[in-house]
Amino acid sequence: MQFLKALFWFLILGLIAAFAVTNWHPVEIQLWSSLVADVNLPFLLLIVFLIGFLPMVVIYHTTRWRSRQRIAMLERTVEELRNLQAAASAAPAMPIQADPAPVETPAAPPLVTP
């Protein structure tokens, strides 16, 4: 399986290198007023790719970091609750008091129908 992954990445890198070699043409970019920049096409495509890729990588890593922090906080909370439960079960039990005498409710008067 590792061989197939390596072969895949070598093929991708080969395609990128072939594209760069065959399209090594200068491209004129009008920046502002009369300022013109001559940039090779593969370099321009790399810059455009990085402009779209880097924000997504930053978002991915921040989301992953926040998720790890939240999981760690939840694990600490669960551990604290387990410790509290263990301490409560190890504490001496309170003596159970006898129920007070039941209170008798007065009986309802009989219904008289005329």
Name a few traits of the molecule.
114 residues, mainly alpha, two-stranded antiparallel ribbon, 9% strand
Provide a short characterization of the protein structure.
The protein has a domain at 13-84. The chain has 114 residues and is mainly alpha-helical.
Model description:
- It is built from 2 helices and 2 strands; from the N terminus they run αββα.
- By secondary structure, the chain is mostly helical.
- It has a domain at about 15-85.
- It has a two-stranded antiparallel ribbon with strand order 1-2.
- Strand 1 and strand 2 (about 35-40) form a beta hairpin.
- The chain starts with a helix and ends in a 24-residue tail after the last helix.
- It comes from Sphingomonas koreensis.
- It holds the Pfam family LapA_dom.
- Keywords: Cell membrane, Membrane, Transmembrane, Transmembrane helix.
- This is LapA family protein.
- One of its GO terms (cellular component) is plasma membrane.
